[in-house]
Amino acid sequence: MSSSITRRQLLVEGSKVAVSASVLSALLAACGGDSGSGNQTSDVSLRYWVLGYSPNGGNQTGKLTDAAVAAYKKAHKNLKGVTITGYTGDQSGFTKLTQAVQGGSTVDVFRLPSDVLPTLVRAGSVAPIDDFLTADDKSDIASNLLDAVSTDGKRYSWPLWVPPVGMYLNLDIFKERGVDVPKDDWTYEEFVDIAKRLTFKRSNGQQVYGYSGVIDAGVVNTWPFIMGDGAYPLSKDNKQYTFNTPEGVSGLQKLMDLALKYKVTPPDFGTQTTTDMVTGFSQKKNYAMYSEPSGSSATYKALGMNFTVKSMPIGMSGKPLTTGGIGLISVTNLQDDNKLKAAMDLARYLTSSQVGHDITGYYLAPGARKSVEVSDPIALFKPFVPYTYITPIIAQWPQIRTILHDQIQKAVLGKVSAKDALNNPASEVNSLLNG
């Protein structure tokens, strides 16, 4: 992805994206992209790696992906088959994907977050999509997103969706404690008050916590607290580290206070996994609120959970803000032209509105194409898109977020102060940015 597009441009343009999360893919027949023409795909097999996929319908992503691939195969009789592999949405999972793609022997098509793309492009591991983009593709996909996946004039991914982080609320726990659902413009102080009221011990001895969230190098699920006072990790041109401002320090202190001062988080807050979060929220029901992008909302709806999603609390800046990235589907740099063509056709279908019509609920985040329509619960995230901070799409970002995660985690665990946590990475991050 090109770093020439600024965060502000991306956010402004992002507000123009037609978002809704029930049907994610662009109707290629309507868009002129003829994704369903089985005559175009020759006798090949493809290997598709999917973020968050559990096989045999193990989760909602697994069910939807299996159904989408089955629909595609039905329309493409010459395709031998598609093997699907899942990987986790954390640093370990992203490392596994990167190594597999660079290895060049186990992946053909893959879903990835935006900040992983520059590393793979620089390594020559990803095929440009330009020769496969139709005029209708170009008019349907938000132009800023096509710019975002461009490097040196070539585009290297099919944009899928923009998943902003929101605050999940377990409404059964709210009702249990007699707490009103907050307004959309709630503040950090109001959030703390609610989280304190939702932190309690049930009569059976089960401890319930008002809030939790994953703190991992691969996600930014708790970053809206850090950035809510007006701080940004990098300057607008992505050339200088800027998280260690007074606004950044006060924002990180607010995240730390949830654990160290207000005691509204579980004891292992800071080291929890995504699985811990989903289980605690939906099955154990001992987390009243937690922050995450839109993906899990479809799973909760399928489970019949009584939940809703609100914007992240507003910090000292006085403006709403959340964090996110761009979900993408790329194709490895295949040398077999026949296989490359088949892989690109599959990637187009999986990011089209047609797959949304074929598979109800396919889109787990607001879509990248204007033709994509979504419904609740994904539609609950649509209002957040215009003010979503998109993590920097530069080759150094995976290294930078790993460095920052180490310090943020130490701060939340009470091992370093907020000021030291944000000052410590400055020299190393600026060195990376300066090459």
Automatic annotation (TrEMBL):
<dbReference type="InterPro" id="IPR006059">
    <property type="entry name" value="SBP"/>
</dbReference>
<protein>
    <submittedName>
        <fullName>Sugar ABC transporter substrate-binding protein</fullName>
    </submittedName>
</protein>
<dbReference type="Pfam" id="PF13416">
    <property type="entry name" value="SBP_bac_8"/>
</dbReference>
<dbReference type="InterPro" id="IPR050490">
    <property type="entry name" value="Bact_solute-bd_prot1"/>
</dbReference>
